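This section describes the prediction task in plain terms. A model, or a person checking by hand, is given the sequence of a single protein chain and must write out its three-dimensional structure as a string of tokens. No templates, partner chains or ligands are provided. The sample shown here is typical of the held-out split.
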Amino acid sequence: MALHLVKEKENFINEESVEQIPELMNACLFYGPHDIRYEKVPTPKIRDNEILVKVKVALTCGTDLKTFQRSHPILIKSTPSTFGHQFSGVIEKVGRNVKNFSTGQRVVALNSTPCYKCGFCAKEKFSLCENLSFLNGAYAEYIAVPADIVQYNTYQIPDNISFEAAASLEGLSVVVHGLERSQVTSDKTVCIIGTGSIGLMFCAIAKLNGAKVISLGRNAFKLELAEKLGADHILNIEELSEQELIEKIKYLTDGNGPEIVIEAVGLPETWELATKLVSKGGLVNFFGGCKKGSKVELDTYRIHYDELKLIGVFHHTPKHVKIALNLLNNTNFQEKISEKIITHTVPLRELEKAFLMHKSGQAIQVAVKP
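The expected answer:
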């Protein structure tokens, strides 16, 4: 799927739209931790190089759950604020300078875009861009997509990809990035710690790559989903001591341990566990981001003498977005996402219910429909 390029100007005039757009729209606003309100707010206006999308599906995810629980230093600049960043929909209006999109098209816009100008972008390390711009506000009837994201990170979605599956593109893209950096191949065993949406996506795509997969979690419902997504072995870490877990995983890997361990939780204790499970010469991907200032204790003797490779992976890049979009064209894979990872659907006014289901472990991702 090609990226669509346009030139940017700073006017507000735009005329092409599908239907009469209301002055006010329904949206869920973040007022503070555990305080979100369903209200009428002004429908966004767009500039010449922007598009207005009528949201069909917005998903809950770990980032938005954390925002709901404690706010977010980057995504929430002031309150009250719209929020939500994984979505898909239909273009309702286009700015007059937008040439490669038109009203009525089904699209997915990513939650950010690199600047393509800084030193990291020059080295094609786009996830480390010093000027990443972010898009927030998907828990609403409409969302305005800014010019740079229209230019670099908005994609038309074919009719064979559902709105639900398309909305998962951001999550899939970061997982594809993480798997590539982890060097997952068919001759390796991958142990994935965590059975949230990201952990389950890691499981599904690692299995698609032919790897042997061991899934670790605490929730029986989520572990069953991991098994349905292809995990060769599932282990509930609540039922085993740490030493029992290490021995069990060695038993499942001919006494060596897995060549790759991916931590998809974001807690210091699971970061530490990951380094204890991996085989000699193995790789640990600290994919789950811990709270700022978190500290971990690692066995430096083991890191040195067992030649462990420890990496961190963050965010997505344009390359990995394209790969993820192609994955969604695979009908079987798309069904896995839509049926096993997106487990529930609620109307927009019940967004708080969706977060509580997500938090309690009853749901993986919830599709929120305006």
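For orientation: The mean pLDDT is 93.
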